[in-house]
Write a structure and sequence with these properties.
By secondary structure, the chain is α+β, with helices and mostly antiparallel strands. It has five helices and six strands; from the N terminus they run E-E-E-H-E-E-E-H-H-H-H.
């Protein structure tokens, strides 16, 4: 019986003799590998903070789940972003890149970020485009949550 050991650069096979053989080289772009091995802005913020917007999205077809949070200052500028993602390397890379790109933008500017831009930057293959779509959905969900909080401020 062979066991597959996934890796972003190669796929290994552990055979019945406990020998490891490289059986396939994956076609991940260097940008995906970089964001997967060195993810930026991993973590969480206080979702009860009125200046924090939280987006939680998932892709039932593949099981990826992405939480992306933004913190906005009094001028409407995103000053911080964090993510936690359960998923493949492309999903993690898309989340990491999304947090880098939203920081420093206004809420309106961040709304203009598109999954196609994320996919292009990471050179995602067609089979992984859903990861960049998930990142765009997470950004929009976080921005929507932030705007709802601004319209309905909670009493402290």
């Amino acid at each position: 019986m062979a066991y597959l050991i996934p890796n972003l650069r190669r796929c290994f096979c552990l055979n019945s003799s406990n020998n490891i053989n490289v059986i396939q080289t994956a076609a991940y772009h260097a940008n995906v590998i970089d964001h997967y091995e060195n993810p930026r802005n991993v973590g969480s913020m206080d979702k009860k903070d009125k200046n924090v917007g939280t987006g939680l999205v998932g892709a039932p077809a593949c099981g990826d789940v992405m939480k992306l949070q933004i913190k906005v200052d009094e001028n409407g500028k995103i000053i911080d972003a964090k993510f936690k993602t359960f998923g493949c390397g492309s999903a993690i890379a898309s989340s990491s890149l999304a947090t880098e790109w939203v920081k420093g933008k206004t809420v309106d500017e961040a709304l203009k970020l598109k999954n196609t831009d994320i996919a292009k930057e990471l050179s995602l293959p067609p089979v992984k485009l859903h990861c960049s779509m998930l990142a765009e959905d997470a950004i929009k969900a976080a921005l929507s949550d932030y705007r709802i909080k601004q319209q309905n401020p909670q009493k402290e």
